[in-house]
Amino acid sequence: MISVVVCSIDPVLSANLEANIANTIGVPYETIVIDNRTAKKCIGAVYNQGARSAQFPVICFLHEDVVFSTPNWGQKILQYFEANPLLGLIGLAGSKYKSRTHSGWYTGIPALDCANILHINRKGQEYRIVAQPTSGKTFERVVCIDGVFMCCRQEAWEQVLFNESPLDGFHLYDIDFSTRMSRTYETIVSFEIDVVHLTEGGSFDNHWLKYTFLWHRMQRQLNQLPLTLEGSNSPNRIYERKIAKTWLSVLMKSKVTMPYRIQWILKLHLIHLLSLLPDIAALLLYPFLKPLLNRVKKKP
Known about the structure:
The chain is an alpha+beta fold. It has helices at 11-24, 43-52, 73-83, 154-160, 173-182, 206-222, 237-252, 258-266, 270-273, 277-298; strands at 2-8, 29-35, 58-62, 66-68, 87-91, 93-95, 97-98, 113-120, 126-131, 139-142, 144-145, 149-153, 186-190, 195-197, 227-228, 231-232.
């Protein structure tokens, strides 16, 4: 039995999701859809509110812009929890390593990233994010997950709760919740549940960076990063450099202003600066070169 909690800002999307869940979940369930258009609470507060009224022992926190393609996906969720009493949280995308480098869950390292989500971009084009470090496995254990789909035991949520302050917006709530969960319970990414995400996913802009800086500062004060499957350890220099390179590329084409670009660079570990100079230069120069590149593309 599963309680599904949704933070909604679009009644059409939430109605479509409820119909899709009814046709695919395959187990007794309830939906708790909280209209957040007027209150505009942070997503952590909405999720905690919904979870407090949940009747069932498993709670799924969902984005409203998803469509399930897998029949009886709820049965698979319950089977995971029944098979492993140490399991606290299930996602569809995540990583085995959360870096000290300021980043999202994605590392860009095939051995660490786990995902199975189909996205539809603004042009209506489909592309699947598939990352399966071990071929043939139905799930992988991770330390952090993406917030598009998060299923957990009710008692695990009660122990961890979503962070409503200072993470009082809509970013980093998932990394914060899943990393704290992973210190007490096991967290996995399942490859058995197919969903279509009707948007492109994360928007890595100034607002996202603001909360990324805030959350990493909180973790640094507690000396809790990096987080690996073995717990918090000394940072893996190879991983950290590769992750920095990955996010230099991500942020280069994102809507990030120059002060935030510089601030992100200044937070890099000194040991990585020299080897990443070309990538750093690209991050700084891209806003100036982009108009020129666009003009070149338009020429016949």
